[in-house]
Amino acid sequence: MKALSGTLVVTLEQAVAAPTCSRRLADAGARVIKLERPGGDFARGYDDIVHGQASYFVWLNRGKESVTCDLSEPEDRALFEALVAQADVFIQNLKPGALDRLGFGTGELRKRHPKLITCSISGYGETGPYAHRKAYDLLIQAEAGLAGVTGTPETPSRIGVSIVDVGTGMTAYEAVLEALIARGRTGQGADIKLSMFDCMAELMAVPLLHGRYGKAPERIGLKHPSVAPYGVFQCACGTPILLSIQNDREWRTLAETVLGDPNLGDDPRFATNIARVTNRDATDAIVASAFANETAHALSERLAAVDLAFGHVNDVGGVLAHPCLREIDVSVPGGSARLPAPPAIVDGQSDQSFGPVPKAGAATEAVRREFLQLDE
Question: Can you give the pTM of this predicted structure?
Fold first, then answer.
């Protein structure tokens, strides 16, 4: 039995952030009933790459029951009330104020159902000057400074995955789990509110600390702003190797075994990480010169032999062929999809099954009969 078996989650969700949270709950065994507006979650239309289904939707909606629901209709309002009355968790990411206008604000729901855990996700929070702005992943990447610290010196760049949505969804997931644990002690639910901007401000803590107490980090491409040498260097064969030296002991090992100059380990220009970052151009030039005389295969063997961290700059094809990639098969309308496996491996947990990705509204009639106690 999975950890959240017997837990009922009801969602009014769309796009990515809230579905990330509820899919993790579904993976953990919760029953997730996804209420979709007529026409469905708009993420269903992002693309049609997986047997006619959208990649984002396939990724984030396995194991859920899809119910078509229009809260302007009396019968659907009754269904929503019946669902929430039995739910353990209610998740929504509608525009701030939308549920209140419908008479279903989370504060009101909590008054009616004290054990209910509500989780509301917004772009910039439910109050303040940006509360009613639309917010999507790339917009928040820009507003929260992520794009400002990503890219080359010449131009900021988007992080190549939906880091804002995913990070917000995972933060919501941990908050819901904490609330479930607390409810087990107190018998009381919780009203959780979190914004995409706040979640990314948390991820931006180190750059913000540098900006407030020192100097804001500059964009330096595929290098680390606080550690050196930590970046990409070209080998003699043209293959890039990403080297990561995390401390001064590792620098001395690199100097002796790979760079061929043990004296660099105690050279005051390079002996400490602070010195190496200050003299980054000279540090990187020394490493680049040594790497340029070695093949990627030879360098990999030498670095591995002395337990120094390195990696390859893979493209998508390289990851698909990676020996560490674990995958699962999930049923989707029209076929089956291979997806990355959930990261956590729980010793002794035998149930590794995952529910199918639902067609829009596929569970509508069954859920109506069950929760409104309708005859066949």
Answer: 0.88
CB hemisphere CA count around 172 (13 angstroms): 35
Checking if the pLDDT of 376 tops 60, the result is: no
The set of catalytic residues is 224
Residue identified by tokens 């989707």 is 332
Dihedral, 83, 85, 91, 94 alpha carbons, nearest 10: 80
In terms of Cβ atoms closer than 10 Å to its own Cβ (0-12, 13-18, 19+), residue 155 is exposed
CA distance 19 to 50: 18
**Cβ–Cβ under 8 Å, residues 36 and 68:** yes
Q: Give residue-wise pLDDT tens across range 199-225.
A: 999 999 999 999 999 989 888 888 998
- pLDDT tens digits, one per residue of 301-311: 999 999 999 99
**Secondary structure, 3-state, the chain:** CCCCCCCEEEEECCCCHHHHHHHHHHHCCCEEEEEECCCCCHHHHCCCCECCECHHHHHHCCCEEEEECCCCCHHHHHHHHHHHHHCCEEEECCCCCHHHHCCCCHHHHHHHCCCCEEEEEECCCCCCCCCCCCCCHHHHHHHCCCHHHCECCCCECCCCCCHHHHHHHHHHHHHHHHHHHHHHHHCCCEEEEEEHHHHHHHHCHHHHHHHHHCCCCCCCCCECCCCCCEEEEECCCCCEEEEECCCHHHHHHHHHHCCCCHHHHCCCCCCCHHHHHHCHHHHHHHHHHHHCCCCHHHHHHHHHHCCCEEEECCCHHHHHCCCCCCEEEEEECCEEEEEECCCCCCCCCCCCCCCCCCCCCCCHHHHHHHHHCCCC
